[in-house]
Amino acid sequence: MIKEIKDNHLFWDGCDTVALAKEFGTPLYVFSVTEIRTQCRAIREEFLSRYENTRAAYASKAFNTLAMLRLIDEEGLSLDVVSGGELYTAIQAGFPAEQIEFNGNNKSIDELALAIDYGVGRIIVDGSQEIGLIRALCQEKQRKAKVMFRITPEVNVQTHAFISTGQKDSKFGIPLDEEILFPLIEEVIDAPEIDFYGLHFHIGSQLSDNHSHIAATEAALALVLEIHHRFDYTVKELNVGGGFGVRYTEKDIRQPYSYFLDPVMATIETFCQAHQLQRPTVVIEPGRSIVAEAGISLHTIGTIKTLPQIRTYASIDGGMTDNIRPGLYQAEYTGILANRAAEAATETVTISGKACESTDILVKDLQLPKVETGDLFATFATGAYGYSMASNYNKLAIPAVVFVEKGHAELVVERQTFQQLIQNERIPSFLMKE
Ligand SMILES: *Cc1c(COP(=O)(O)O)cnc(C)c1O
């Protein structure tokens, strides 16, 4: 168990969180390396070693740092990046180019040039304009790009609308319209600068039901067959995206990878046999499910405000700046007092952030022991989209990140300093004091 309670303290992957807070300060992100490795192993056991010709690319936007990318490489997964900055980090981490997939609905020329120069394994094209850019760059550089098309499979998904991406009216993906999609496919099959691999979809995030993955797979397979008929071309690869849900609170159901992927693979294999098609390589892109539950955030409780008969607010030394998900899409979290972890709950407290926004509430109406200023609050499952969405709003510094494994702790991102907050700022000459 990576979570333990000993001597009234919360321990995370063998490390006393109270000691971590003392050594590294708060707010602090703490990631269990053991838990990340466990998730990678689950992907290997339930998918990669169960099915031939498969690949798993960690969707690094969930948490993209040098240390994390090294760990993912060591665990033998591929990597998905969605920007020049994420790609640059991957290059700096020495991530093998062939194992990188580049997604994004508006890649710039500079980003595409960086990807082509580094020789990334796949460029996942999100629209018609991008093909023209890639071909021009490849001609100029005398290179060939390995390309997939992200399609919009037109399925609706049981998740928050703000994290649903597979419906027709979406900024993501190429629509299944005949006049848009088929001319593009014909173009890339023929283009000398392009190695066309196949199709990609990603339909949404935090899913606990496999129906939308299966429906999207069926839509993609119909397209695979149509491409075969029209162009006598067999799609080599099908990427079914990520979106596997995690457990933030007791309300959430976390399904194993096999719950999603066994029926997806059965659907693909049955279809390919029925139509005598070679089964494409199948790729998944999990982000959240690899890191979310490995990460916790530690905050120190400051001001406590009690409104009799209404609510008690306990404010922490961070908030929406290190975890914007509650404010962004009403995401729910839970947590405990890490320094009094074995004590019984006696009151209802709302944990609020210190940013100047009323939506900066981390956890509403949580049962806790009587909270005191100076207590250490631990929020669970903040590993995905916490650090990666952190901001400097109110000029709060972005917290440090620590990796812990079996009792050993190591800093992997230093806390921002005030000096770093202004290092790119300049005073124009007309405002200089002499
Ligand atoms: C965000 C994203 C993922 C990962 O989604 P999770 O819900 O974090 O698993 C995978 N593929 C693409 C293209 C994405 O944009």
TrEMBL record:
<dbReference type="GO" id="GO:0009089">
    <property type="term" value="P:lysine biosynthetic process via diaminopimelate"/>
</dbReference>
<protein>
    <recommendedName>
        <fullName>Diaminopimelate decarboxylase</fullName>
        <ecNumber>4.1.1.20</ecNumber>
    </recommendedName>
</protein>
<feature type="binding site">
    <location>
        <position position="325"/>
    </location>
    <ligand>
        <name>substrate</name>
    </ligand>
</feature>
<feature type="binding site">
    <location>
        <position position="288"/>
    </location>
    <ligand>
        <name>substrate</name>
    </ligand>
</feature>
<dbReference type="InterPro" id="IPR000183">
    <property type="entry name" value="Orn/DAP/Arg_de-COase"/>
</dbReference>
<feature type="domain" description="Orn/DAP/Arg decarboxylase 2 N-terminal">
    <location>
        <begin position="35"/>
        <end position="292"/>
    </location>
</feature>
<feature type="binding site">
    <location>
        <position position="385"/>
    </location>
    <ligand>
        <name>substrate</name>
    </ligand>
</feature>
<feature type="binding site">
    <location>
        <position position="329"/>
    </location>
    <ligand>
        <name>substrate</name>
    </ligand>
</feature>
<dbReference type="GO" id="GO:0008836">
    <property type="term" value="F:diaminopimelate decarboxylase activity"/>
</dbReference>
<dbReference type="InterPro" id="IPR009006">
    <property type="entry name" value="Ala_racemase/Decarboxylase_C"/>
</dbReference>
<keyword id="KW-0663">Pyridoxal phosphate</keyword>
<dbReference type="InterPro" id="IPR002986">
    <property type="entry name" value="DAP_deCOOHase_LysA"/>
</dbReference>
<feature type="modified residue" description="N6-(pyridoxal phosphate)lysine">
    <location>
        <position position="61"/>
    </location>
</feature>
<dbReference type="InterPro" id="IPR022644">
    <property type="entry name" value="De-COase2_N"/>
</dbReference>
<feature type="binding site">
    <location>
        <position position="357"/>
    </location>
    <ligand>
        <name>substrate</name>
    </ligand>
</feature>
<feature type="binding site">
    <location>
        <position position="385"/>
    </location>
    <ligand>
        <name>pyridoxal 5'-phosphate</name>
    </ligand>
</feature>
<comment type="similarity">
    <text>Belongs to the Orn/Lys/Arg decarboxylase class-II family. LysA subfamily.</text>
</comment>
<comment type="subunit">
    <text>Homodimer.</text>
</comment>
<comment type="function">
    <text>Specifically catalyzes the decarboxylation of meso-diaminopimelate (meso-DAP) to L-lysine.</text>
</comment>
<dbReference type="InterPro" id="IPR029066">
    <property type="entry name" value="PLP-binding_barrel"/>
</dbReference>
<keyword id="KW-0456">Lyase</keyword>
<keyword id="KW-0210">Decarboxylase</keyword>
<comment type="pathway">
    <text>Amino-acid biosynthesis; L-lysine biosynthesis via DAP pathway; L-lysine from DL-2,6-diaminopimelate: step 1/1.</text>
</comment>
<keyword id="KW-0457">Lysine biosynthesis</keyword>
<dbReference type="InterPro" id="IPR022653">
    <property type="entry name" value="De-COase2_pyr-phos_BS"/>
</dbReference>
<feature type="active site" description="Proton donor">
    <location>
        <position position="356"/>
    </location>
</feature>
<feature type="binding site">
    <location>
        <position position="243"/>
    </location>
    <ligand>
        <name>pyridoxal 5'-phosphate</name>
    </ligand>
</feature>
<dbReference type="GO" id="GO:0030170">
    <property type="term" value="F:pyridoxal phosphate binding"/>
</dbReference>
<dbReference type="Pfam" id="PF02784">
    <property type="entry name" value="Orn_Arg_deC_N"/>
</dbReference>
<feature type="binding site">
    <location>
        <begin position="285"/>
        <end position="288"/>
    </location>
    <ligand>
        <name>pyridoxal 5'-phosphate</name>
    </ligand>
</feature>
<keyword id="KW-0028">Amino-acid biosynthesis</keyword>
